[in-house]
Amino acid sequence: xxxxxxxxxVIDANSIRASIIEDGLREAGYSSVIxxxxxxxxxxxxxxxxxxxxxxxxxNPNRDQLEHMFQVSRAxxxxxxxxxxxxxxxxxxxxxxxxxxxxxxxxxxxxxxxxILDMAVSRFNAFDRLRQELDxxxxxxxxxxxxxxxxxxxxxxxxxxEPDAYALLRRTAMNKNKRIVDIAESLITAAGLLGEEDGA
Amino acid sequence: MNRATRSSDPNLVRMGFMPLTDCAPVVxxxxxxxxxxxxxxxxxxxxxxxxxxxxxxxxxxxxxxHMLAPMPIAACLGLTPLPDRLIVPLxxxxxxxxxxxxxxxxxxxxxxxxxxxxxxxxxxxxxADVVAQRKRRGAAKLVFAVVHxxxxxxxxxxxxxxxxxxxxxxEIDIVxxxxxxxxxxxxxxxxxxxCAGEPWGRMASVAGSGRCVTTNVxxxxxxxEKVLGVAQxxxxxxxxxxxxxxxxxxxxxxxxxxxxxxxxxxxxxSRPEIFDLPASILHANLDGRIMIDDxxxxxxxxxxxxxxxxxxxxxxxxxxWFYAQMVRWGETQMSAEASARAQATxxxxxxxxxxxxxxxxxxxxxxxxxxxxxxxxxxxxxxxRLFLAADGFFxxxxxxxxxxxxxxxxxxxxxxxx
Lengths: 200, 418
Hints:
The complex is a heterodimer of chains A (200) and B (418). Chain A is α/β, with parallel strands linked by helices.
């Protein structure tokens, strides 16, 4: 098979993740990348797109629809395999761990596809890390808001300054071997029960 | 439900399921203490597609799962994208599927004389008339959906169509649609009908887009549906642990079968992490209530049978029937070797060994003539007395697992007639 550019189809309901993968593939020099977020539309257009490699996110409920089409449709001319080499259990595991599955038409050389597969897996993982970081940042922000509320309650009910209120929260947390945010949470709950919070 | 990391806990079993009413024994075993009583901890994972469930077993993120009955056979025959060694030590029951069509197609079927009370033969005949009329008019082919290619649904639907002289995939296109999306696909006119497990037929009926025409128990009274599929290496790594799992799911299936437990079971299944649907819908499925016209229910006896009549026993003849259908539709070759491999997937020997301590009556045979029982019949059992319920096919055919080749040849000859 001549080295004509590989056509890669990415089906991912998550458009941000899909564009991260698309960017990665383009940076690596693959120019023929088609991204679709609607799996049903992708299934309808597959003959026209005629991809060599298909990536689809593992949580996509339309995977059965896609596989069914490979299995019975006379419209798909070339047989499709999942991954390149079924003996390469490590690649398959890495992909499934990352949350992506790959379908590859028969006859492509393993070396040609391996780099693309690795790329998609690493991009899926990178997206996962980004999301985790975002979740962490969100929860940090939420923590800070709670601590601010607890400080405000102390300032109001005990007439403390802000640094003193924070120092008290921190000292209590250390003595009780807990996180400051947990102490703040208990204080907010208690103040709510005692009717002390009034919109703080 | 997060992905389970590999665990060294020898008592942990990781099980997958799809949201269909017949996942009940697996869910009940996991959440109502049946597994715990056997000293097992269960990590339960709801999957988005059968393909993903299969892949997670293939890389051993899961040890066992609620699976479509032909799926482990297809995996063992190398017909799936990731071939695997899976075994079936226990069936999750009979029945539970409906064939539901759009209101438009139902109007055509009624005009063609379709019976209104879910009989398989009359509805298939009416559908054959409608298909012939559409052909004459030059109308587009009807599209029916199943949940997955290697499903009992595919083979039941094809059997039903072909018995009325309709050629599946030639005169009616068959596509796959995820079960929860069936009602929407029907309402949007993407499909004209589907064969799927409940509650999705009822959901389409309640929404006003669908009408159930028949059920899988009308097509084949003892039609095997879902199974407990187990990774063979996981089973062999610790046979006693495997037996404990079989016992836990078996006891859960018996519990699910008891009408006294239906409300509790419906509540359990309605939970957000299982179905996230009203318990009343699931309760109707468990009762075997099928909605026909104007919100009226028809009660189908034995519609969803989790355990009675040895419904959990993995008959090798069940596996052989699925294999015969795969050969019939040209998905695999007829050979003694492949037939043996398909039948070896179902493990009545492990079923009996695991359940021996419970002292329940189990069949002593591994295989039977499928569709031969016209009435409840006593069969030889390990202990006590065991009756099998009538198990006929709607077209009166009988399947002899020792004569697969002749059976397929007969069906094919009939399929080729015009």
